[in-house]
Specification:
This protein is α+β, with helices and mostly antiparallel strands and about 190 residues long. The chain has a single domain (about 10-175), classed as Cyclic Phosphodiesterase, Chain: A (Alpha-Beta Complex), CATH 3.90.1140.10. The protein is about 25% helix and about 35% strand. Strands 3-1-9-10 form a 4-stranded antiparallel sheet. A 4-stranded antiparallel sheet has the order 2-7-6-5, covered by helices on one side. It has a two-stranded antiparallel sheet with strand order 4-8. The termini are far apart. Bound molecules: adenosine-2'-monophosphate. The site of adenosine-2'-monophosphate has 7 residues, from strand 3.
Length: about 190
């Protein structure tokens, strides 16, 4: 028998939140440095740094992933957004890190391997931490030579649900976990 589509599936991902003042600064900087025709700007409240994309996930699987996330013991780290780039194939203009902190890479690696073990497809592409600024940027974009070099403290991570309603995407936090573990501060 073919299973009916599970309507309780939700589109989920783990991410680092950006502090609200930084979201506002980035939006202002984007307006000043990227041409409006370059692509569709991501709303300030939606600016985040994805750690692991999970896709459409059942409630049972989400529960397992949340339990595993809760057992992660890692300390926080500083994320410096000092790089900018454009991926024309996915139409994404992004801010990223020239030298991502080890803690960020470790956390993403752990969440991605836990997700893969739970059957959430993980892209074979290497993890490239980034904050998406624009979507739909499929044409060449004149990128500014420098970013604002803003940094933020990754002191917690969250599970988000992506909800599309009335023509807009919203990201709702389902649960957050502190990064206050005992490993050496990075
Ligand atoms: P992006 O910003 O580079 O597009 C919520 O959709 C978050 O999950 C976004 O940050 C998005 O990354 C990421 N995401 C969406 N679909 C994805 C996929 N198939 N593989 C990896 N990441 C994905």
């Amino acid at each position: 028998m073919i299973n009916a589509v599970d309507k309780t599936n939700r589109r989920l991902f783990f991410a680092l939140a950006l502090p609200k003042p930084l979201q506002q600064k980035i939006v202002q900087w984007r307006a000043d440095h990227l041409p409006p025709e370059a692509g569709h700007p991501i709303a300030a409240a939606n600016l985040h740094l994805t750690l692991a994309f999970l896709g459409e996930v059942s409630a049972a699987k989400a529960q397992v992933l949340q339990q595993q996330a809760g057992r992660i013991s890692q300390s926080g780290f500083n994320v410096m957004l000092d790089d900018i780039g454009h991926w024309p194939s996915s139409g994404v203009v992004w801010l990223g890190c020239k030298n991502p902190p080890r803690g960020l890479l470790q956390l993403a690696q752990l969440l991605r391997s836990q997700a893969a073990r739970s059957g959430c497809y993980q892209t074979p592409l290497p993890f490239h931490p980034h904050v998406t600024l624009l979507r739909g940027a499929v044409r060449p974009v004149a990128l500014p030579a420098k970013t604002q070099n803003e940094s933020f403290r990754g002191d917690h991570f969250s599970l988000y649900e992506s909800v599309f309603a009335r023509g807009r995407t919203r990201y709702n936090v389902i649960q957050s976990w502190p990064l206050t573990g005992s490993s050496k501060d990075i």
